[in-house]
């Protein structure tokens, strides 16, 4: 067997990752100087307003519109006690869960094909998956409005009418289903990319070994490929869930009243009703949902890493 | 060796992938088809062929000023994101200090937090502080959501830098500024360019920050299209949308040429 290739300049084996060595800048002072502008910016325009918004949700709005003490939990009580609002929370979680499940079920095959195809096909799939990310969500949602239109000229209705599958146009737009379809389209890349990157890292010899030892293709997938892709799967799920739960454009255009989500509720409270403390409470509920999902995924990944050691 | 898909698995996976690709492209193609349709109303299938709606769009003052404002805002936001993000990425990769992991997740935290809520929190902050310069407020919001992308791509590029080249240059007598400029920057330049272009698009497409902070004089394109969807029922909305799609596709192709799409997104 030939000797392992060695980088002629450094004498380092060619397989050694280039990032294996780090150059450390001399002083800790340098780190402070490099980091302080961004950290100050974040403190001022991210941490401060986020905390401000949350504390606003515990304040009282007087009848003349001024907001101040006393501290109160009234907005949260109002949110959970009013069926209209608690239904919006349920719809939000429901839509986000269904979208996440669909994104994974459809994204897994795409990621597999993407990773295990010849370069040209891989590149084509990558471009098709990623390109819509650079197209504004508003534009993509507009396309879905054209497709799902409720009249006979809505494209899907037109196709179903012309193929004789339905007799009269069906109502697709302004429903939970429409929001799920739109969200799936918008956030699909967020499921595929982490999956593809996890699948790309799997040592193919493990699968070959399983097959050689007599495992069926399905068993190999279930016992080798799937467990090894779990980190990518977890990241993908969290991203799709969080982004769907926090979305505004898709439910605002496709959702109508039956597909209303928390983001739309927050917008209404702030820009139409002008009840800022209650809007802040709705926003805090949304943040809690998203952070809970992220916390859960960190826990899952941590436990997995502990097992791995 | 089973390095390629084959057998029954391929028969299952390939059709699903093809169907998903059609699903992804469908709304874009439909929008393009509608934009060249020769009817006053949006109907399907499109009738005839006309470029009239593009003429309308390009004469639409609201669209032109939105286009101008969005471009200026995205350029300024990208600059701001580079100024804040690149030094931070250097500190993360090249400096050793306690709590580096925490700092790194803090810098990326605007990506985890719902952007819609970041926007409304900023609205509240600005109104409390009496900040009433709309353009500046929007710039701050856009820098906030684009900077994490710059941090991510710059960090990824810096990790790929071959530091032995820096050692070599130093040994050969180059001073540190020269090493930085000629060796380090030269190596991360493609990643940096891809990151900047991606940040530009993130700002150009941003809706959930602009929603809260924009006003009639400062109306970016995504907001304008959103307003038009609710009020204009002729294909000029589709024409404007198609222009946005073409613009985005050009950016995608450049990104792919410059440094690879997936690297630009650091995914």
Strand content of chain A: under 5%
Helix/strand-derived category of chain A reads mainly alpha
Query: For the residues shown, what is the average pLDDT of chain B?
Result: 86
- SS class of chain B: mainly alpha
Rounded to the nearest angstrom, the distance between the terminal CA atoms of chain B is 27 Å
How far apart the termini of chain A lie comes to: 33 Å
Q: Spans of chain B with pLDDT under 50 lasting ≥5 residues?
A: none
Please provide a written account of the structure.
The complex is a heterodimer of chains A (309) and B (267). Helices cover 71% and strands 1% of the residues of chain A. Chain A is built from 13 helices and two strands, in the order αββαααααααααααα. In chain A, helix 3 packs parallel to helix 7 and helix 10 packs antiparallel against helix 13. The N terminus of chain A is likely disordered. In chain B, helix 4 packs across helix 6. The two termini of chain B are 27 Å apart. The chains are: A mainly alpha (309), B mainly alpha (267). The interface between A and B is large, with 99 and 101 residues.
Question: How does the SSE layout of this entry go?
Answer:
The complex is a heterodimer of chains A (309) and B (267).
Chain A: H1 28-56, E1 60-61, E2 67-68, H2 74-81, H3 83-115, H4 119-134, H5 137-148, H6 155-162, H7 176-200, H8 204-212, H9 217-228, H10 230-245, H11 249-255, H12 262-272, H13 276-308
Antiparallel strand pairs in A: 1-2
Helix pairs in contact in A: 1-13, 3-4, 3-7, 3-10, 4-7, 5-7, 5-11, 7-10, 7-11, 8-9, 10-13, 12-13
Chain B: H1 7-35, H2 52-59, H3 61-94, H4 100-112, H5 115-129, H6 134-159, H7 163-171, H8 176-205, H9 210-213, H10 221-231, H11 236-258, H12 261-264
């Amino acid at each position: 067997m030939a000797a392992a290739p060695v980088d002629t300049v450094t004498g380092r084996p060619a397989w050694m990752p280039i990032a294996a060595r780090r150059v450390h800048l001399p002083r800790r002072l340098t780190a402070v100087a490099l980091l302080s502008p961004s950290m100050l910016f974040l403190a001022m325009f991210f941490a401060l307003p986020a905390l401000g918004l949350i504390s606003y949700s515990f304040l009282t709005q007087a009848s003349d519109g001024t907001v101040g003490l006393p501290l109160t939990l009234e907005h949260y009580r109002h949110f959970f006690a009013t069926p209209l609002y608690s239904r919006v929370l349920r719809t939000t979680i429901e839509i986000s869960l269904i979208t996440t499940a669909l994104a994974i079920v459809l994204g897994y095959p795409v990621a597999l094909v993407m990773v295990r195809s010849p370069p040209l096909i891989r590149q084509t799939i990558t471009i098709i998956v990623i390109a819509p990310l650079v197209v504004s969500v508003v534009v993509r949602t507009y396309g879905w409005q054209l497709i799902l239109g409720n009249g006979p000229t809505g494209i899907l209705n037109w196709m179903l009418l012309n193929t004789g599958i339905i007799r009269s146009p069906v109502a697709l737009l302004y429903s939970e289903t429409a929001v799920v379809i739109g969200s799936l389209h918008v956030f699909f890349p967020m499921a595929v990319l982490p999956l593809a990157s996890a699948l790309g890292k799997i040592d193919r010899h493990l699968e070959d070994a399983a097959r050689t030892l007599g495992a069926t293709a399905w068993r190999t997938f279930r016992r080798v490929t799937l467990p090894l892709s779990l980190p990518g799967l977890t990241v993908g799920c969290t991203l799709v869930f969080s982004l769907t739960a926090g979305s505004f454009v898709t439910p605002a255009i496709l959702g109508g009243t039956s597909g209303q989500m928390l983001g739309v509720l927050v917008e209404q409270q702030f820009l139409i009703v002008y009840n800022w403390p209650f809007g802040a409470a709705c926003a805090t509920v949304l943040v809690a949902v998203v952070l809970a999902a992220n916390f859960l995924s960190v826990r899952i990944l941590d436990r997995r890493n502990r097992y791995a050691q | 060796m089973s390095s390629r898909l084959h057998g029954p698995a391929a028969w299952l996976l390939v059709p699903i992938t093809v169907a998903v690709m059609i699903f992804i492209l469908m709304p874009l193609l439909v929008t393009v088809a509608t934009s060249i349709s020769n009817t006053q109303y949006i109907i399907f299938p499109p009738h005839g062929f006309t470029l009239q709606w593009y003429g309308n769009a390009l004469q639409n003052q609201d669209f032109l000023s939105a286009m101008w404002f969005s471009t200026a805002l995205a350029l300024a936001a990208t600059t701001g994101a580079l100024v804040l993000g690149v030094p931070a990425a250097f500190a993360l990769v090249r400096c050793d200090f306690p709590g580096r992991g925490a700092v790194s997740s803090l810098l990326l935290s605007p990506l985890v937090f719902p952007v819609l809520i970041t926007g409304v929190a900023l609205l509240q902050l600005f109104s409390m502080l009496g900040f009433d310069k709309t353009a500046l407020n929007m710039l701050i919001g856009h820098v906030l959501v684009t900077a994490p992308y710059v941090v991510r791509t710059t960090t990824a590029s810096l990790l790929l830098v071959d530091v032995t080249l820096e050692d070599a240059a130093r040994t050969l007598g180059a001073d540190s500024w020269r090493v930085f400029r000629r060796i380090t920057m030269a190596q991360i330049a493609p990643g940096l360019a891809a990151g900047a272009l991606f940040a530009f698009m993130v700002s150009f497409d941003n809706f959930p920050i602009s929603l809260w902070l924009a006003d009639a004089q400062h109306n970016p394109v995504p907001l304008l299209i959103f307003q038009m969807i609710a009020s204009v029922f002729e294909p000029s909305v589709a024409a404007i949308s198609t222009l946005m799609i073409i613009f985005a596709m050009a950016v995608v192709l450049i990104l792919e040429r410059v440094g690879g799409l997936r690297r630009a997104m650091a995914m």
